[in-house]
Amino acid sequence: MAIFRFNSFLRFLGQHKVYTAIEIFGLSVSLMFVILILTYTRQELTTDRFHADAERIYMLGDEQHNMSAYGIAGRLKERYPEIEDYCYVTSAILFAGQDEIPVLTEGKKWNSSVSFVNDNFFRFFSFPLVIGNKDYVMANQNEAVLSESYARKVFGNEDPVGKTLVMNDSISFVVNGVMKDIRHSVIKYNDILLRTENLRRFRSDMDGNIYNNALATNAFIKEREGASLASKAEDMRDYLKTVYWFFEREIAKTVEFIPITEAYYAPNFGYMYNKGDKQLVMILLAVGLLILIFAVINYINLTVAQTGFRAKEMATRSLLGSSRMSLFSRLIGESVILTFISFLIGLFLAFVARPYGERILDATIDLYAILTPMNLLLALVAIILIGFITGLLPALLISRTKAVDVVKGGFRKKTKMVFSRFFITFQNAITIALMAAALVMISQVNHLMKAPLGYNTENIIDISAETLGSKDKVMTLANEFRRLSAVSLVSTSAGTPFNGGNNNTIEFEDRSIGFQTLIVDSAFMEMLGIEIIRENHVASNNAFYLNEYALKEQNLPIDAETFTFYQPDVPIAGVIKDFNLRNILWEKQPINLQIRNTEEFHPWNILVQVQGDPFIGWQQVKDKYEEIVGVEFNGKFIDQQVADSFTVQKRISEIVGIFAVIAILLSLLGLLAMSTYFIQQRSREIGVRKVFGSNNAQILKRLVGTFLNYVFIAFVVATPIIWYLMRNWLSGYSYRIHLSPMFFILAGLGCFVISFVTVFFQSYMAANANPVDSIKTE
User: Fold this and answer.
1) Is residue 551 a contact partner of residue 575, using CB atoms and an 8 Å limit?
2) What is the domain count for the chain?
3) What average pLDDT does the chain have?
4) Contacts of 574 (CB under 8 A, 6+ apart)
5) Is the domain of 307 the same as that of 430?
6) Which residues make Cβ contacts (< 8 Å) with residue 202, sequence separation at least 6?
7) 307-343: per-residue pLDDT in tens?
8) How many Cβ atoms sit within 10 Å of the Cβ of residue 136?
């Protein structure tokens, strides 16, 4: 009997292929997005919970920063028994200006991301090793551990253990372990891990005894079981005031312990570790829920649209003795089956779409991790629940209908589509809101990227020089660039407006001032178009140009000749107009800029200005770099660096835009279902109107107008809500666009056009149908 009923259901689906395809397609695509979103958000919300001692691991910081100085955690462990162990994680960005440095192995150079960690790293954390034992890897200072993907990329199927890695042309390490790629952690993925003691081989001022590099490392500490680190925070602060200048000068005022399970979303400053965006996670969850609601609404609308066909079948079964409950159960069961089929298709589509989702989110989406017995059981429960919800209204509608009403044709008169009208209006309102939000967000992001920063960003390539080794090599490369036909100007500098140079914090009148210091050559100001407001014509090599904000910070007039910078009476070479570091959202900061001969400083950056076609210039510079350095080019246009600094904003606007498209698609399907059902319901009325003189155009106008009225109502409902939400969103930006009514008008017009196109064809066919056929059928 069950097989017979299932076959009957399959026959019905086969007889209505278009509806079946639309139902399964809409639900499958929706479930694909839901699966991807839930997998990603689950990863994001459970970051670092896999460590065996996760509840006892903390990141050491202060009230502003989630970073520390190299050596501090070790000193605290010696003094406080509450600390069981500690581990430093320091990125190569500290001395290279970027995560990657060139590594020579097997006769070839590779740009490789490197971090420095304590030798207890694999005992402190629970990152698994593929090759090696956690008690022995990195036992010696010259030993290195590779990531699994890096080992495969560089050595293929060869065993990498025992292979030699050469950095900075002369510093050698031997591979003695391979680890699983680091994922879903506040600790960044790295190609290579080296021991912390090696930092001084790359940067000599990394002295663990004098703590001269504030915010130079991520210090993790493990609380002893039964102890309370929080109870020692004030005592630690008082102690650090005696040994660490950062606390002594009260730049930092409290000692903070950030649980590793919370560090991913901690708001404090930090640049060497992964940071999550909880706003993005909440947006994704909200949109995922909306998509699921849309899918359920569409399924209900499409199923209700077929009630005329199903009602006849169910009436026949009722007359043959089937009870109302059995009819209800049958319809719910069919809904669950269709949901299950859609889930399987959605899961397959999720695997297909995963690379695209990973590109948008800039993260791995580990779909295989969700294929556990518990997760599959939860998925089955969700399928049954969704199937029940989607099938409930159609099942109630059909099972409660009397067989005699169906036979007499009264069923169509009784179904007034109240729910469908509400659902379509709701869908259109959400669609208009998402379209308007996407337009506002995209416009705001473009506004930020094109904001004037006070210096030239066009056609200038920034190349990191810190990984090149000797100064002679840097100057050789710079001179070779000058010979290229597409290059108009070359400058070397220690810092750029985008990276901010070096921070130097001084004491001035009982307060701290943090200067961003740039050491540059004579071509720097010309290339970047930095405006000099006043030139003092000072001959001293020790003189600095100050920006206007720096003068205000030290209460100096524009014609001041000296300022305080670690010592009083430092000469002022001139005053430059304020410009923004990094991007337009960064607050103004004191900047001191010193022009020196290239022989007098070690450049961190080579800036190359190209002329003519930027692509040709880029290619020439890239080819010359790779010819001389022998490693993949690491340069980037400054305007692209600025654009990339808005990655989070671009990602959110792109996601909202994608879901606006999905909302349009699902609304289209829902409107298609409702228009079909509506026209079926009113076929007799249309025939009667035509018999009594209504022409095709009047009928068409009446039918199409009915659906456009729902769009208009949705527009009226959605506009004030999305205007309020977007106004609040824009208020978070100091530099923002005007919230023009055109955003909402365009979104509304877009929805009107899509709705018109969707219902026009069916309405046209109904308006042009022979009225005799519809009246005879009725």
Assistant:
1) yes
2) 3
3) 84
4) 532, 533, 534, 535, 536, 538, 545, 546
5) yes
6) 92, 95, 96, 167, 168, 171
7) 655 566 666 656 555 566 766 777 788 788 888 999 9
8) 14
